[in-house]
Design a protein that fits this description.
seven-stranded mixed beta sheet, SH3 type barrels, four-stranded antiparallel beta sheet, 3 domains, alpha+beta, 347 residues
Length: 347
């Protein structure tokens, strides 16, 4: 046989095998690529879930009772004492603690000077369980003196500007930081927003009208919070606020606590009420979103460690049929609309 013919036969026989090999290799490469993509997707999903868990845990872990903040030491970045937290200023309109009252100087705890420090000026030292404030004693003495008997001054623009300037906080940066905290990562389904939007607008309008008429004092001292009464949705009095639960990082009020039952405080139950479930009706009265007869079956706070329990926190919000920062989101949208309107009128 012609050698050339033999080589042609061999080539023709090799061609199908070669094509098959190419197909197999291509199929293997495609399968491997698909596996890598699936593995990457799983890893990304796991990373997202882990980050979400971490964010949720961080959001819960900073919740602390108001009386745990009062009395806390404050130091400068070098660790030198500046004083201690004497009280908190609570904005009852927005459910925030915009300022902590810092007491310093004096002798043996007497005749101490007091200034209101913006909450965002503090950093928390978790190791030493104290606040760090990047300032000096001279700057503290230059800050406006705080008088708990004259809380109306806190709302004055000149007082706000001077206080922010003393502690090195720009007014615009302060507003942007507040907006980011308030909006943050707390987004909910658009359908839920549309369903509750009308109710929120009505509540915002009523609350704004009452504030404008001067019926509600905007600020209260944390030490006086127990003067505020709580009513059920049916108008029946439930009791008085006992303490506030505050997000130590943002200064937002997350919950109010109320103690009921027991004898002389012994054996009393502590109820955790979301701030979003409370609507201000009078100067020192709030109405809760559930009736008084349902209140006794509401989730109870047995231990402060439960404030770090995501499942417990979620059960509280579900029982009161509200979601975190529901009202603050509405307040933020209202403020943004007001700012846009002012800019249009100014333009």
């Amino acid at each position: 046989m012609n050698p050339l013919s033999n080589s042609k036969i061999i080539c023709r026989a090799a061609l199908p095998a070669t094509a098959l090999t190419v197909v197999l290799l291509a199929g293997t490469a495609a399968a491997q690529q698909q596996q890598r993509q699936q593995q990457d997707q799983r890893q990304q999903q796991q990373l997202r879930e882990r980050q979400a868990d971490e964010r949720a845990q961080r959001a819960i872990a900073v919740h602390t009772m108001s009386d745990n903040i009062i009395g806390t030491d404050v130091v400068d970045p070098r660790g030198e004492s500046l004083g201690s937290i004497d009280d908190l200023v609570v904005d009852l309109r927005k459910g925030r603690v915009p300022y902590a009252v810092l007491a310093f100087g004096g002798t043996l705890g007497f005749n101490r000077d007091k200034v209101a420090v913006p909450m965002q000026a503090f950093a928390w030292d978790n190791n030493e369980e104290r606040f760090v404030l990047n300032t000096t004693r001279d700057r503290l003495e230059a800050a406006p003196e705080f008088d708990s008997e004259d809380l109306d001054k806190i709302g004055e623009e000149s007082w706000i500007d001077r206080t922010l300037e003393v502690f090195g906080i720009d007014r615009e940066e302060d507003r942007e930081a507040r907006d980011r905290r308030d909006a943050g990562e707390r987004r909910n389904a658009e359908q839920d927003r549309r369903r509750q939007d009308q109710q929120r607008r009505d509540q915002d309008r009523d609350r704004s009208a009452a504030d404008e008429e001067g019926k509600h004092k905007p600020f209260a001292m944390g030490s006086d919070i127990d003067e505020i009464k709580l009513l059920g949705s049916n108008g029946e009095e439930i009791g008085s606020i006992n303490k506030l639960v505050i997000d130590r990082n943002s200064g937002n009020v997350a919950f109010a606590t109320l103690r009921s039952g027991g004898v002389l405080g012994v054996g009393a139950d502590t109820h955790l009420i979301p701030w979003e479930a409370m609507e201000r009706t009078e100067d020192k009265k709030f109405r809760v979103s559930i009736s008084s007869d349902r209140f006794e079956n509401a989730p109870k706070l047995q231990d402060e460690e439960q404030l770090r329990d995501a499942a417990f926190i979620q059960s509280v919000y579900r029982y009161y049929q509200v979601r975190p920062d529901q009202r603050r989101d509405a307040d933020q949208r209202r403020d943004q609309r007001r700012d846009r309107e002012e800019r249009r009128q100014g333009g």
